[in-house]
Amino acid sequence: GWLEAVTQQMGYHPQYLDSFLKMQHYLMHMDGPLPFDCRHYIAIMAAARHQCRYLVNLHVLQFLRAGGDPQWLRGLEFIPPKLRNLNEINKILAHRPWLITKEHIEKLLKISEWSWSLAELVHAVVLLAHCHALASFVFGCGCEQDEGLGGRGSLKPLSLGNQCFCEATAGNSYSQELLRINRKRSLDSCMELDSLRERMQRIHVETEGRDEMRLLQQDREEGEGQGAEVGMQGGTEHCSDPSAGLSPLADTDGEVTGATNLACYMQDPDFGYQDFARRDEDQTQVFRVQDYSWEDHGFSLVNRLYSDIGHLLDEKFRMVDGLQSSAMAKRQGCEPSVFKRGIWNYIHCMFGIRYDDYDYAEVNQLLERMLKVYIKTVTCYPEKTNSEMFDRFWKQFKHSEKVHVNLLILEARMQAELLYALQAITQYMI
Fold first, then answer.
1. How far, in Å, are 63, 120, 206, 422 from residue 45 at the CA level?
2. Which residues does residue 288 pair with via DSSP β-bridges, in sequence order?
3. Is residue 214 in some structural domain?
4. Structural domain count of the chain
5. How far apart are the first and last CA of the chain?
6. Who is most buried in 228, 254, 390, 416, counting CB within 10 A?
7. What number of other Cβ atoms are within 10 A of residue 15's Cβ?
8. Residue 189: what are its φ and ψ, rounded to 5°?
9. DSSP 302-321
10. What is the DSSP-derived secondary structure letter of residue 101?
C-alpha cells in the first residue's frame, strides 16, 4: 500500500502520524502550483539521491496513476528541461544545503521558455526537502528493502502481543478512519491494477520494438565503420541503456516492480555529504538562527507563496517537539525537552546551523558515541545505514523510542533544508 511500512512505524505516535499524513496528502494530492505528475517525478528525483528504492518505486506507480508520461521513467534525459533544471538544487539540498545561493534561485526563475514561477519553486523545494528527509526515516526505520514494496525491515512492524497494527489502534477514531481509507485504497488499487498492467505491458512492447530498431541501427553503423570509436559508448551521465530506467513492468502475478536503475534519475552521483567545515569560513558562513528562523521568516514566506503549506509544516514541527520521551531522557539523566533539543541541535549543527543560546558541550554529554554515529549516518547518508548500527545502538531503547529518534531526524533535517532554500529565495526577492 501507499507508504504502508512508513505509516506502520509512525503509528507508534498517532498524533504525529495524523499531522504527517495531512501534510503529505496536501503536498502530493491537493491543489497547488505544480501538476500532479510533476510532483511525483520530483519525489522520484529526490529519493534517488539517497538510492531509496522504496520511495522511488512508490512514486513511479503514483506518477503513472497521475497520467505521467512513461518515457520520463527512462531517466533525466527524457524529461522536459524545466524539470531537469531542478537537478542542481536537488543535489545540493540533499547533501550540502549550505551551498545553495540566490544565484541558484535566479537561474531557475530567469525569463525563458523553461522558467519556474516563485510559487512553483517553493512547492518543488518543499517536495525535495520532504522526500530527502523521508528517505532518512525509511532507512532509519528499516522500511527500505531489497525487493518489492512489502517487506523486510530492520525494525519489526508494529505488533502488540498477538494484535496487529489495525487491532491495536482500534480504539483510536483517527486510526479507524485511516483503516477505512486504506481499505478503500486497496479496492481502488485492485480496480486500477488491470488497466495499469495493460498499460505497462503496452509500454514494454513499445520499448522492446524501439530497442530492436536501435540494435539493428547499431549493427548497421558498426558494419559500416569498423575500427572507428563508438561515440556513444559510456557517453551519457544517465542511463546508456535506453530501457534501463523503464522497468516498472507488471509481472504475471500483477505485482508491479520498480525502477532497477536509480542512477538514471540523477546526475553527479559522486556528490555527497561533506562535513560542514569551519575552516572554510571564507566560502561558507555559519547559518545563525537568530538571523533567519522558521518561526520568524521561513513560515511566512512559504505560506505566502504556497497557501496553507506553512501551517501544515508548522503543525508537524510542533507535533514532533511535543512527543513524550520521558523514559528515553531518563536513561540519559536529563529532562525530555533537554534530550530532544540535544538531538535536534546536533542534526542542525551537522548542516552548519547554530543557535547562539545553546551550549554545544551538552551534545557530547547527552548523546553517547554510538547514538551520535547512528544519527549522523541516518541524517547525512541514510543509504549507508546497516544492521550493525541497529544492533549496537538500539539496545537500551524501546521500539517507540527508536521511531521517535527517527522522527526527530526527519523533521530536523527537513527544517534545515527548508531554512537554506527559503533564505536563498528571500535573498533573491530582496
1. 12, 16, 24, 20
2. 354
3. no
4. 1
5. 44
6. 416
7. 13
8. -65, -40
9. HHHHSTTHHHHHHHHHHHHH
10. -
Closest to 24 in 3D by CA, of 127, 149, 157, 122: 127
Q: What is the domain range of residue 288?
A: 10-145+261-429
249 residue type, one letter: L
Any alpha helices (H) in 141-172, and if so which ranges?
165-168
Cell of 129: 526537502
Alpha-carbon dihedral of residues 224, 226, 229, 234, nearest 10 degrees? Answer: 80
| CB distance 5 to 152 below 8 Å | no
Burial (CB count <10 Å: 0-12, 13-18, 19+), residue 216: exposed
CB within 8 Å of 143: residues ≥ 6 apart: 5, 6, 9, 54, 137, 153
CA-to-CA dists, residue 222 to 62, 209, 236, angstroms: 40, 20, 19
* Catalytic residue list contains 52: yes
Dist CA 313 CA 308 (whole Å): 9
Show Cβ contacts of residue 185 under 8 Å, excluding neighbours closer than 6 positions: 1, 2
Residue 323 in any domain: the answer is: yes
Amino acid (one-letter) located at 51? Q
Cβ(6)–Cβ(134) under 8 Å?
A: yes
- Residue 232 included in any domain: no
CA-CA-CA-CA torsion for 211, 212, 218, 219, nearest 10 degrees? 160
- Any domain includes 334: yes
Given the residues 38, 52, 143, 380, select the one marked as catalytic: 52
- What are the residues whose beta carbons fall under 8 Å from the beta carbon of 261, sequence distance 6 or more? 75, 239, 241, 244, 245, 247
- Gap between the Cα atoms of 301 and 175, Å rounded: 33
Q: Digits of tens for pLDDT over the chain (430 positions)?
A: 567 889 999 999 999 999 999 999 999 999 999 999 999 999 999 999 999 999 999 999 999 999 999 999 999 999 999 999 999 999 999 999 999 999 999 999 987 888 999 999 999 999 999 999 999 999 998 887 533 444 334 454 433 332 222 233 333 444 455 445 544 544 444 444 445 445 555 554 555 555 545 544 554 444 444 333 323 223 333 333 333 333 343 333 333 344 457 999 999 999 989 888 654 554 568 899 989 999 999 999 999 999 999 999 999 999 998 887 666 666 666 777 888 999 999 999 999 999 999 999 999 888 888 889 999 999 999 999 877 776 666 667 788 888 999 999 999 999 999 999 999 999 999 8
